[in-house]
């Protein structure tokens, strides 16, 4: 270390991360080369793109990634003429933990099958650190394009690293690995070429391996999406899929096609078989990569709508200029037509695959909530998406569609009935369901947060209205089935007294025929949000329109009959009873009583009296 070198501690969890990488993935050491070569190729791509708008940043005539083994010095060097890194960027990218965090990485290592562990490094954005699986010391010399300064970052993979001024004739980065004694196999040129062909043959930047002073090509560098489907092997397609980032399972579906005619582009898209790791929570933008004549332009072209953001891949067109700007991307009609075509292709694939219920369930279990967002926000595709929705149901096992539900509707049933909550098993036993169970009317059980929103936009399917059974009054009298048993109490006195006692907490108290075993249930007003939406908004600390809930009472229940008799007495006081009924209804719907301590005390007193 020179006198001017600065010593820095690694970011909070890097030390633990390095230990995980070195030891947990030790048997798959060759992936370090995949990660370093991919990083170098990305840096070249970024510089090439920046040079489109700033000619001073142009790449050298023969831009390539060079892999240079030196057996005598026991070093392996990976060099690229890419964007390079400034001092601050070296600290940011190499001195701090990836956004995913060590804990998530460690859990994935523990849970993953042995065959999947080689892919976890790339998945969690910690690829550079894999160098320490084979190197006892790593030195990174980098010069940011457009600057004269170069810096040397160095570390032995323990608790710290150093930064010192350095020299590099051109912009770019050199990574020098001082290899461990048991890693000398990675100094053999043939071994290096084999690894690169295995992991990085699809990278379009030329990669060379130096042997006896001569550079030998190590990758074919052909864009897979430009080949015909028959030319691409399953292995090559799978490795490209994994190279895209954050996706390390096998794809559920692969879409590979070329559009020709008025609009020309090639596309290779993947629908993952598992939910990709999302480095930035809340990021809803599609990250499908846009290329122009094989050159990477951006992954922020929004080539698919947010509700298809799980789709990964590349779209490559001849119909845009290489120097396309972000502003032009937003305005050009060419890109709008590409978006429509790509979205249509993905939708066609989903509709085709949905014909196989078991196969489609694999997709729906992972991405169903995301697809529902489209019903909420995309009027153009709303009805088309409705046919792809799947639900848990009170009537059938597994998943069912809206079309299947409509085919099972009872004579006299006019609406598609839904019930929203947090858990399907709990919903199936809810008091809200009693009248529907008694008449054999099916209810769809919705448990995703987005379910509180999209029915408001869809409204109807196959000309049948979609209604939450907790919203407004429910009339099942036209449906054939068993009528409620028992004599109904006269509620002429009770209902006004309950309404008076609960005037500040409910908008109405009314009798209902939809209860069988329960005394009371809550409902939302016809014009306001349903009960689940109200709960979500309360949890978020937000108010909502539509007024107070409605308390519905079962006139055939023993408790209500007793309260009706009590109400008939002159000067009856029902304030406490009314409060208990409301708390009981709230509990049944998964809410807490207004005053849990007071409620518990009253229940205990009632039990004591009953026991006596």
Automatic annotation (TrEMBL):
<keyword id="KW-0547">Nucleotide-binding</keyword>
<dbReference type="InterPro" id="IPR001404">
    <property type="entry name" value="Hsp90_fam"/>
</dbReference>
<dbReference type="Pfam" id="PF00183">
    <property type="entry name" value="HSP90"/>
</dbReference>
<keyword id="KW-0963">Cytoplasm</keyword>
<comment type="similarity">
    <text>Belongs to the heat shock protein 90 family.</text>
</comment>
<dbReference type="Pfam" id="PF13589">
    <property type="entry name" value="HATPase_c_3"/>
</dbReference>
<keyword id="KW-0067">ATP-binding</keyword>
<comment type="subunit">
    <text>Homodimer.</text>
</comment>
<keyword id="KW-0346">Stress response</keyword>
<comment type="function">
    <text>Molecular chaperone. Has ATPase activity.</text>
</comment>
<keyword id="KW-0143">Chaperone</keyword>
<dbReference type="InterPro" id="IPR020575">
    <property type="entry name" value="Hsp90_N"/>
</dbReference>
<feature type="region of interest" description="C">
    <location>
        <begin position="536"/>
        <end position="612"/>
    </location>
</feature>
<protein>
    <recommendedName>
        <fullName>Chaperone protein HtpG</fullName>
    </recommendedName>
</protein>
<feature type="region of interest" description="A; substrate-binding">
    <location>
        <begin position="1"/>
        <end position="326"/>
    </location>
</feature>
């Amino acid at each position: 270390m020179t006198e001017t070198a600065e010593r820095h501690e690694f970011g909070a969890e890097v030390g633990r991360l390095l230990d995980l990488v070195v030891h947990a993935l030790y048997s798959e050491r060759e992936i370090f080369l995949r990660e370093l070569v991919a990083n170098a190729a990305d840096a070249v791509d970024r510089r090439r793109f920046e040079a489109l708008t700033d000619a001073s940043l142009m790449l050298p005539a023969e831009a390539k990634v060079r892999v240079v083994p030196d057996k005598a010095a026991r070093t392996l060097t990976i060099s690229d003429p890419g964007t390079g890194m400034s001092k601050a960027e070296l600290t940011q990218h190499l001195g701090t933990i990836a956004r995913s965090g060590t804990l998530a990485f460690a859990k994935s290592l523990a849970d993953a099958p042995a065959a999947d562990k080689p892919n976890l490094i790339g998945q969690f954005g910690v690829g550079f650190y894999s160098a320490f699986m084979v190197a006892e010391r790593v030195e990174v010399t980098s010069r940011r394009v457009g600057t004269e300064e170069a810096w040397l970052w160095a570390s032995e993979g323990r608790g710290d690293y150093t930064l010192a001024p350095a020299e590099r004739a051109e912009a770019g980065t050199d990574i020098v690995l001082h290899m461990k004694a048991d890693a000398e196999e990675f100094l053999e040129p043939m071994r290096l070429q084999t690894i690169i062909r295995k992991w990085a043959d699809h990278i379009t930047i030329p990669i060379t391996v130096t042997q006896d002073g001569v550079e030998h090509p190590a990758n074919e560098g052909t864009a897979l999406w430009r080949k015909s489907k028959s030319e691409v092997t399953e292995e090559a397609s799978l490795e490209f899929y994994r190279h895209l980032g954050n996706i390390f399972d096998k794809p559920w579906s692969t879409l590979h096609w070329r559009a020709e005619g008025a609009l020309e582009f090639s596309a290779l898209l993947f629908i993952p078989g598992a939910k990709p790791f999302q480095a930035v929570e809340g990021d809803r933008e599609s990250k499908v990569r846009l290329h122009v004549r094989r050159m990477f332009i951006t992954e922020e072209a929004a080539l698919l709508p947010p509700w298809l953001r799980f789709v990964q891949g590349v779209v490559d067109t001849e119909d845009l200029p290489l120097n396309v700007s972000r502003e032009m991307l937003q305005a050009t009609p060419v890109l709008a037509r590409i978006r429509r075509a790509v979205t249509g292709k993905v939708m066609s694939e989903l509709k085709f695959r949905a014909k196989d219920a078991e196969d489609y369930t694999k997709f729906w279990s992972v991405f169903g909530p995301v697809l529902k967002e489209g019903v909420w926000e995309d009027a153009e595709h709303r009805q088309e998406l409705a046919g792809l929705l799947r639900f848990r149901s009170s009537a059938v096992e597994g998943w069912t569609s809206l079309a299947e539900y409509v085919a099972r509707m009872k004579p006299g049933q006019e609406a598609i009935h839904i019930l929203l909550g947090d858990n399907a098993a709990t919903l199936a036993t809810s008091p809200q369901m009693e009248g529907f169970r008694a008449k054999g009317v099916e209810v769809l059980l919705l448990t995703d947060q987005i379910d509180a929103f999209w029915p408001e936009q869809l409204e109807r399917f196959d000309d049948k209205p979609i209604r939450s059974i907790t919203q407004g009054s429910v009339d099942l009298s036209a449906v054939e089935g068993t009528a409620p048993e028992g004599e109904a109490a006269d509620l002429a006195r009770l209902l006004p007294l309950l309404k008076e006692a609960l005037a500040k907490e409910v908008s109405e108290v009314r009798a209902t025929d939809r209860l069988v075993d329960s005394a009371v249930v809550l409902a939302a007003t016809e014009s306001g949000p349903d009960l689940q939406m109200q709960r979500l908004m309360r949890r978020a600390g937000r108010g909502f329109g539509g007024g107070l809930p409605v308390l519905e009472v079962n006139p055939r229940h023993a408790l209500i009959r007793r309260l009706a008799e009590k109400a008939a007495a002159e000067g009856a006081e029902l304030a406490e009873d009314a409060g208990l009924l409301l708390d009981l209804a709230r509990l049944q719907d998964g809410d807490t009583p207004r005053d849990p301590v007071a409620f518990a005390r009253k229940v205990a007193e009632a039990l004591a009296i009953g026991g006596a």
